[in-house]
């Protein structure tokens, strides 16, 4: 199922996407589950499904989508997780995933603008498959990892490259406000027959810049979940951005930076099409 977070008539809600409509289950269950994070934490998807019949249907065009989860406790980013990206960056091969963190206030929604900060013009796209944790846990095994996934979503883990390269620590270049798009919705894993065959494609103003199947990840999703949950407890609503394919703007000749007025799309068939404009921070 596709589950979206949104604002309808000025109120925050959530519900199931059905074609060009959204079933506003939050209008029925909002007191018990005020947002999608609360529903995920309670493992109450079946309760939400049972409420579909009494929930209002609203045109998608009449709601404002918000990030699928707006207050994740932790956002983990996996660096250089495709061989094509590792090679273009000149990074050495490693035995463990490269992990860094984002803050929740860096998130923005489908249809909203990615913000280029005043301090830089080096805003780069990074199309990625996002994993949203459902059941939390510590020391999750690879065999059990996918049972802990609530949903999958497209993401644009955009980077402020010069700030990312100030030192060997990526944190500054990954945490400017509204530089990480997440949406338009999350898809429950049962919707994807063969996750490895799913392709992550980035288009900038209609031109394909990145395209690679999930099967090319150096560290597959179950291994990432097992690794992260070894050093910290994963909680419902946490987000893992699983890495970007080769073709980033920084490694092109000349470099290609996103600029105000651009349209960037992250297209993951079966999961969703995430579309954002680019604007200068004011």
Topology:
Elements: E1 2-8, E2 11-18, E3 21-23, H1 26-29, H2 36-41, H3 45-50, E4 57-59, E5 64-66, E6 75-79, H4 83-89, E7 98-102, E8 107-108, E9 113-116, E10 123-124, E11 127-133, E12 149-157, E13 159-160, H5 161-164, E14 180-182, E15 186-187, E16 199-204, E17 207-213, H6 221-231, E18 239-241, E19 263-268, E20 272-280
Parallel strand pairs: 6-18, 8-14, 9-20
Antiparallel strand pairs: 1-2, 1-5, 1-15, 2-3, 3-4, 6-7, 10-13, 11-12, 11-18, 12-14, 16-17, 16-19, 19-20
Label this structure with key terms.
282 residues, mainly beta, Fumarylacetoacetate hydrolase, domain 2, seven-stranded mixed β-sheet, six-stranded antiparallel β-sheet, Fumarylacetoacetase_C_sf, isomerase
């Amino acid at each position: 199922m596709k589950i979206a977070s949104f604002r309808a008539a000025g109120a925050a809600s959530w519900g199931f996407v059905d074609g060009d409509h959204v079933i506003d289950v939050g209008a029925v269950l909002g007191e018990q589950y005020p947002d999608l994070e609360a529903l995920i934490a309670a493992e109450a998807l079946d309760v939400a499904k049972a409420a579909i019949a009494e929930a209002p249907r609203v045109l998608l065009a009449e709601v404002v989508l918000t990030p699928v989860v707006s207050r994740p406790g932790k956002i983990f980013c996996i660096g250089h997780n495709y061989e094509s990206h590792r090679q273009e960056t000149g990074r050495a091969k490693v035995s463990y995933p490269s992990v860094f963190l984002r803050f929740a206030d860096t998130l923005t929604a489908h249809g909203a603008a990615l913000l280029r900060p005043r301090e830089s013009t080096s805003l780069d796209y990074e199309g990625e498959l996002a994993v949203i944790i459902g059941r939390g846990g510590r020391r999750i095994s690879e065999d059990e990892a996918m049972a802990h996934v609530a949903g999958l979503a497209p993401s644009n883990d955009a980077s402020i490259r010069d700030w990312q390269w100030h030192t060997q620590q990526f944190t500054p270049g990954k945490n400017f406000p509204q530089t990480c798009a997440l949406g338009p919705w999350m898809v429950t894993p049962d919707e994807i027959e063969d996750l490895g065959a799913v392709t992550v494609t980035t288009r900038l103003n209609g031109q394909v810049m990145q395209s690679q199947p999930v099967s090319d990840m150096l560290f597959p999703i179950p291994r990432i979940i097992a690794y992260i949950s070894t050093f910290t407890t994963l909680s419902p609503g946490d987000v893992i951005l699983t890495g970007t394919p080769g073709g980033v703007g920084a490694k092109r000749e000349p470099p290609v930076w996103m600029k105000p007025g651009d349209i960037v799309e992250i297209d993951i068939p079966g999961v969703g099409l995430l579309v954002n404009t680019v604007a200068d921070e004011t």
